[in-house]
Structures are given as structure tokens and as C-alpha cells.
């Protein structure tokens, strides 16, 4: 795989996501990434789309749970880094509530698009939001939600951007499934490209949701130990979903892996034997590419490395 640090091919990620979505009977699979290492692993393994998880971003950048603590600035910085390791691979990014009223949302859309993000999702929780799989979520009115989506759609048109807009509703928990579907149908009419019904509680709901949304592509959020029943990528595709995200797979695995590794150190006073070594880690993160880049430019800084 070619990884480039140039920005010339940025528009291709959005175009590529549109092409991936247009494939009949196929689903876009996006593993959750939350830092440079997790993004590098997903790219190295050949995933063709990445999902920037807000929960993972909040925990990796701030060390705090997904409770609306990450700011627009935190999220844009993270998105910019993730979208530019390989600018040809689409990144679908969490944009929470859009971080304010219509003016802030317009700025969020512009900043995400200019950072190289291919699609972003904006939801209808109040600003003091929380992970969609926790209890006690508070939801804004239909009007406020619709104006968030309208602001995003207008910003995209006014600024000549082609980022995809995903409307997410968290209304299922407190207002019910019908209200959630009504909100997303209207969001699609306003101009959202993809719809995301957070925290569905049964397979019947999943099937019904896709049916009710008609031609609008639907996204499924597969959160381990969340409130949505676990289904596979193939099952989601069979139900008609066009995108499936796995926000927890990366950081859930990392937490377990780091814990296991530290436990060996604490117990034995030595590192675990099976650890990935420093060179392998650097190679994962572009060492060879950097040596090549330096050599081609006549640089001497990395000449002695290999
Ligand atoms: C998708 C999500 O917005 C995320 O931040 O990745 C979260 C995931 C989580 O916290 O479990 C959500 O579902 O709200």
C-alpha cells in the first residue's frame, strides 16, 4: 500500500467513499480508530475506510470518558491527523452535536472537510452529551435537530465542499423508535446523505429502520456490550445497511492488550516476551517511507538508519 504525506489527493477520499457506498449489496466496514497507531494498524490491514470514534478520541486525547468533554478543536486536530496518514482512505468522523448553534456547525463542517474528513455525523443530543449507549440521554427538539442538519448542508453548499453529512438521532431511548425514524426521514429530505439511528434494541428495529429509510443509506453502530444486539458485517449487509462502524474494537482491544502487558511487567519485573519491538512499531508508522523521502531529497539525517 502507498502511504503519502501529500495533500494533493485529498478530494479522492470523499469520492472514494461515494463510490464504496454506490456498490450494490455491499457494505462499508469502518473500524474505530482513536490515535495514530490504531489508524496505522487498520490501514496496514487493508481496511478501506476508517471511523474516528469520539469516545476513543476523548479517552486517548483527554483521558476522560465520552461525556461531551472533547471540544471542536480537539476533534478537528484528531481528524486532521487521522485523515492525512493516508489521504486516499476515507475517514468517517464523529462530530457529536456539531459543537454549538448553526454558526458553530458551519465552522465544524468546514474544518472537518478541510482536514480531509470524508463524512461526519451530527446528532440530536444536548451539548452535555454522552455515549449513545448510556442511560439518561437528553434530546433537543425536532426543530433544533433539523436546524443542525440544515446548517451542515448549507455550509457544504456555500463553501463548495463535498463532505458527506450523516444525520444521527439518539431519540430512540427517550422518545421511541417512530420519533427516531421521523427525525431521520426529515434529515434526509433536508440533505443528509446517510442516516444513523443510535442504540437500536432489536434486529426487528434494524430491519424496519432500513425499510423505512428507503433509498437513503443507513449506518449501523456496532458497540460491544452496548444496547444493540451484536450482528456480523454480513448480517448487516443482508439487512440492507450501507455502512457499519465498530467504534470499540480498537480501543477495547488496546485496553486489554496494554493491561496484559503491564501486568506481566508488574508481576515479573520484565517486559512480556511476545512484545512488538521498537523497529517493527516504527515500520508500522512509516519509518521506511521517511527514510526514502529523506534519501530522495538528498537529506543525510536518516542515512545511517538502515
Ligand atoms: C459512536 C460513538 O459516538 C463514538 O464515539 O465512537 C459512541 C460509541 C460509544 O461510546 O460507545 C456512541 O455510540 O455514542
UniProtKB/TrEMBL annotation:
Catalyzed chemical reaction(s): (2S,3R)-3-hydroxybutane-1,2,3-tricarboxylate = pyruvate + succinate
PROSITE patterns the UniProt entry points to: ISOCITRATE_LYASE (PS00161)
Listed InterPro entries: ICL/PEPM (IPR039556), Isocitrate_lyase_ph_CS (IPR018523), Pyrv/PenolPyrv_kinase-like_dom (IPR015813), Pyrv_kinase-like_dom_sf (IPR040442)
SUPFAM superfamilies xrefs: Phosphoenolpyruvate/pyruvate domain
GO molecular function terms attached to this record: methylisocitrate lyase activity
Pfam families: PEP_mutase
Name of the protein in its database record: Uncharacterized protein
Source species: Knufia peltigerae
Amino acid at each position: 500500500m502507498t502511504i503519502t504525506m501529500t495533500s494533493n489527493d485529498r478530494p479522492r477520499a470523499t469520492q472514494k467513499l461515494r463510490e464504496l457506498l454506490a456498490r450494490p449489496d455491499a457494505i462499508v466496514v469502518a473500524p474505530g480508530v482513536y490515535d495514530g497507531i490504531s489508524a496505522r494498524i487498520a490501514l496496514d490491514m487493508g481496511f478501506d475506510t476508517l471511523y474516528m470514534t469520539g469516545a476513543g478520541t476523548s479517552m486517548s486525547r483527554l483521558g476522560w470518558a465520552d461525556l461531551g468533554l472533547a471540544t471542536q478543536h480537539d476533534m478537528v486536530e484528531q481528524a486532521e491527523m487521522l485523515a492525512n496518514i493516508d489521504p486516499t482512505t476515507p475517514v468517517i468522523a464523529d462530530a457529536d452535536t456539531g459543537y454549538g448553534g448553526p454558526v458553530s456547525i458551519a465552522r465544524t463542517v468546514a474544518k472537518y472537510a478541510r482536514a480531509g474528513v470524508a463524512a461526519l455525523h451530527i446528532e440530536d443530543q444536548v451539548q452535555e452529551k454522552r455515549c449513545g449507549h448510556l442511560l439518561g440521554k437528553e434530546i433537543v427538539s425536532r426543530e433544533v435537530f433539523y436546524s443542525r442538519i440544515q446548517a451542515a448542508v448549507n455550509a457544504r453548499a456555500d463553501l463548495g465542499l463535498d463532505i458527506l453529512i450523516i444525520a444521527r438521532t439518539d431519540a430512540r431511548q427517550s422518545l421511541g423508535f417512530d420519533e427516531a425514524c421521523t427525525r431521520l426521514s426529515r434529515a434526509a429530505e433536508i440533505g443528509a446523505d446517510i442516516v444513523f439511528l443510535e442504540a437500536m434494541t432489536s434486529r426487528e428495529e434494524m430491519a424496519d429502520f432500513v425499510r423505512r429509510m428507503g433509498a437513503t443509506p443507513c449506518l449501523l453502530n456496532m458497540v460491544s456490550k452496548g444496547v444493540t444486539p451484536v450482528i456480523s458485517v454480513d448480517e448487516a449487509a443482508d439487512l440492507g445497511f450501507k455502512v457499519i462502524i465498530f467504534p470499540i474494537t480498537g480501543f477495547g482491544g488496546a485496553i486489554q492488550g496494554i493491561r496484559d502487558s503491564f501486568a506481566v511487567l508488574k508481576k515479573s519485573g520484565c517486559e512480556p516476551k511476545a512484545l512488538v519491538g521498537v523497529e517493527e512499531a516504527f515500520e508500522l508508522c512509516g519509518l521506511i517511507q521517511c527514510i526514502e523521502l529523506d534519501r530522495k531529497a538528498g537529506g543525510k539525517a536518516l542515512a545511517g538508519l538502515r
